[in-house]
Design brief:
Helix content: 25-40%
Strand order of the largest sheet: 9-8-17-18-19-16-20
CATH topology of one domain: FAD/NAD(P)-binding domain
CATH superfamily of one domain: FAD/NAD(P)-binding domain
CATH class of one domain: Alpha Beta
Distance between the termini: 39 Å
Number of strands: 22
Low-confidence stretches: 1-5
Largest sheet: 7 strands, mixed
Structural class: alpha+beta
Oligomer: single chain
CATH architecture of one domain: 3-Layer(bba) Sandwich
Mean pLDDT: 90
Length: 527
Amino acid sequence: MTSHAQADPRCIRHRAQPGLPDAALLPTRPHVVVVGAGIAGLAAATGLAERGVSVDVVEREHYLGGRVGGWTDHLADDTPVAMNRGFHAFFRQYYNLRALLRRNDPELRFLTPLDDYPLIDAHGRQDSFRGLPRTPPWNALAFVLRSPTFGLRDLMRINRRAAAPLAAVSVPDIYHRLDQFDAETFLERINFPAAARHLAFEVFSRSFFIEPAHMSAAELATMFHIYFLGSSEGLLFDVADTNFDELWSPLREYLTAGRAHSLTGTVRFHTGVSIAAIDTTTGAPFRLFDTTGAWVDADAVVLATDVSALRRIVGASPTLGDTAWRTRIEHMGTAPAFLVQRLWLDRPVNEDRPAFLGTGSLHPLDNISVVNRYERQARHWAHCHNGGSVIELHAYALPEKATVDPGRVALRQQMLARLHALYPETAEARILGERLQYRRDCPRLGPGDFASRPTVATPHRGLVLAGDGIRIDLPVALMERAATTGWSAANHLLTQWGVSGHDLYTVPIQGRSALLRRLATRESHML
């Protein structure tokens, strides 16, 4: 962590184990292979290299960043355009992700704030986060006072005892208390108003790529704590003002430049390479084979892949782990598929359109982004095309029938119809370019998953896991969970070698109100 002061004075510092300042002081310098160059893998590689460890990063794609990676595509007229997998919100609570990004941009100049992100539902009701106080509980009270979907009368009807866990979250205790319930059932039990449920909670839950009825209530409560009642960072966020490849290229340079940046460890990147299996019976403690049969030996391994790749590698590596651990890996699941539809239009949207709009009860649409409002490359394209626009539509938690070819055609038309209804000026626009991305590689966060979710540590000394599907008993989610598990994976290995690790930061690990925490404890058996 840099000396940059945090806006929330109550953020928690989790100190790393002390030890040697550099792995160069060990009898032999350890060599680690990090599988996956998403946020988790890059955090792990950075944490290790900064303590003098030799690292090889193996990534199956030809770009870094994983689900937050970027690349160059070409439209039908051969115009190069910046591409990525879609909008990402860089919340101010993402301390460990921001610490990683500061390695190559200490002032985070490539992040630009959005002053609002309105939410709208099928009835035209709209909520806004502009101008809310940042400090709990005044942020929640201000939101209620001005919300069209959640008023003081609704607040009085809330089952306050049953709802106490929302305001008194304690991690990991909240998972032991609520993980067996789904989020929709929990909200119904506490009498949370239906309109607000669709407009507020559904928008957030679907950002986890899952319907509330299939999402863990504990994940929902933790999310509420991270982004609302547990932190004074506020609900507004920053966005990258450039395509995501420009976030990671400088970090790659930082890591490979080594001594030029005072890193004593070396990092080598191998992109376009997929690891097929890991053997623990030959060579060094670990021998990793890629899909061509080539192999590399390592003293330790960080598996920082998505769920499907993790299951595939472990399934093809019979000497890894024990039966119980292998079963936990096998039972990991992915969230439903989602669609990102990016459109290059020949005319602008109205000037009053927000850069980001969340939608509720407007299935299949979940949000609209006007990319040229914040991304430099999209803005340049729009300028060069007589004031055109670059629009991005997201649809999460798709039903299975929407992912087959006939369903995809219908889904595309439904998404366009929603866009035209909400932004009528786009109805006559000519589509100069379009890209559809269907993906299903985000972790499932369903009821009951927490107990069996694998942790950073594994039965093997020298083998650790990282990623947003890996359990870590801290209040983190999404990109921040990926970054935090990556740093934690590095720390776990460094501790084994007696080398000092890296401090981590989170929002408070429990609710701020002592009274509500006592109430939640007293009513813990009601649900």
